[in-house]
Amino acid sequence: MVLELGPLVGATLILMLFSWFLYKQTVLYDIAEGVLIGTGAGYSFIMGIKAVRDNAVLPLLRGETVWIIPIILGFVIYLQLSDETIHFSRIPIAIIIGVGTGLSVRRVLLAEIIAQTRASMIDFSALDTVGLINSILILVGTITTIAYFTLSREQTGAFGTVTRIGRLYLMATFGAMFGNAIFGNIAVVAGRVEEILRGFGLM
Amino acid sequence: MSAKKSLMYRLSNVPHQVIGALTLIVIALPYLMPVGIPLKITPYSEQFKAALDAVPEGGNVAFSLDSAMGGTTETGGMIRATIKYFIYDRPDVHIVMWGMHYDCVLVFNTFVADVLEDADYGKEVAWFGYIPGTDAAIAKLSDDLKGILSVDFYGTPVAQLEIMDNINGAPDFDLLLSFDTYGHADSYVGHWYERYKTKIAIGMLSGSIPVATMRFTAGQIVGFCGGVKGAAELEALLKYPGPAYTNYDVMNVANLFAIGLLLFGNITYFLTKKEER
């Protein structure tokens, strides 16, 4: 059995982190947590520096002078470290928020609202039995869920029945998402267990 | 002196350390002694494979590694099977790779790098590393790819990469693959599909399956592969068995254990409610 240093160190650190829920918060857990945060921050810093170098500095050095603008704006963000210059840092932040919001609005309108609305307009005549049942379920779900969020009218009587069906759809959706999230988290733990077993040469 | 507690009451108050240790043991056992639970291929995985097969000869594929390392228990198998499929079975296809999550370099080194050693770098494949900027960067890539990708990960100017000669944006790709754990696929759908109708297939965590199903039904994506099960199915379909099938075994056993814990917790809660009061 040959143990490699990298996986062995990784497996040991994972075990140290697991000590928190297998026993209690210990100095081993604190050390592993510190290593994780430190290496994570260092890695992110290096990736950030590389991104700025590849995407802005190198093109600038090749003569693409337009890149001087984002580089200067990037440095201006650091002016928020002083109370006297903090107002300058709001310029690049405003640009980031403005561009981000503009792009998001376009994306959300196209992909989330228009496309999804169009997708719920179904030609029932062109469907087989299973497709028809699915489409009816989608139609009922869409109408009743939207009805549930109609807050300008009291949800009683026939309208209350409709909104209760909408609530059932929401609960089923949240349940499915919660179940998937739980199993996703188990997958994360499984991955770490696999690393421990590999690290100590057990598989 | 307090009354003696029933066995059920004591079981319902098992320390979390015991449950934690049991969970780890239950997860570890199938790794050491594989169960070999049969795998049933779902139509969604078949659609994902069909999307890969539909890339025309000599076509261009954008390969976006948007997974964090923590999520690769689910996405790692599908990434590896897909890149092997293109490099070994479809060497005519050009692969341009980048990642929108800063872990992409780690993911690349773990699941992709050794496979690319069998490809002609610069002609068949190019790797651009981490692209910062998330939604804004994805929008810019769709319009003016070379406006962002000026050098590859190794510092080679894009003009020296033959593969990039005829690629300038989303319309030049026959398929975009996003292996995503952070919602970047939503940005691809918004900027690449809705504006340029670029075909998109997504590999993602099991938690994202409800959203992906909605997008698939709406025709915004041509296929998706979700979670460990989806990855195992894809490995089987592409005939490149890998880590996902082992993890599928583990997940089945672990999920049954989790369901058992949920049932046990609820049953003991109701049975001991009176005693608790």
Description:
The complex is a heterodimer of chains A (203) and B (277). In chain A, helix 1 packs across helix 6 and helix 5 crosses helix 6. Chain A is built from six helices and no strands. Chain A has a domain of 79 residues. Helices cover 79% and strands 0% of the residues of chain A. The radius of gyration of chain A is 27 Å and the shape is extended. In chain B, helix 2 packs antiparallel against helix 12. In chain B, helix 4 links the parallel strand 1 and strand 2. Chain B is built from twelve helices and six strands. The relative contact order of chain B is 0.18. Chain B is of the alpha/beta class and 277 residues long. The two termini of chain B are 16 Å apart.
Notable traits:
heterodimer; A: 203 residues; mainly alpha; 0% strand; B: 277 residues; alpha/beta; Rossmann fold; 2 domains; 6-stranded parallel beta sheet; 12 helices; 6 strands
First-residue to last-residue Cα separation of chain A: 10 Å
Count of spatially separate domains of chain B = 2
Instruction: Name the helicity range of chain A.
Output: over 70%
Secondary-structure class of chain A: mainly alpha
Quick structural gist:
The complex is a heterodimer of chains A (203) and B (277). Helix content of chain A is 79%, strand content 0%.
Fold topology:
The complex is a heterodimer of chains A (203) and B (277).
Chain A: H1 5-22, H2 27-61, H3 68-77, H4 86-119, H5 129-148, H6 157-199
Helix pairs in contact in A: 1-2, 1-6, 3-4, 5-6
Chain B: H1 7-12, H2 16-32, H3 43-53, E1 60-66, H4 72-89, E2 94-99, H5 104-111, H6 113-116, E3 125-130, H7 134-143, H8 145-148, E4 175-180, H9 184-196, E5 200-204, H10 209-217, E6 223-226, H11 227-238, H12 243-276
Parallel strand pairs in B: 1-2, 1-4, 2-3, 4-5, 5-6
Helix pairs in contact in B: 2-12, 3-11, 4-11, 4-12, 7-9, 11-12
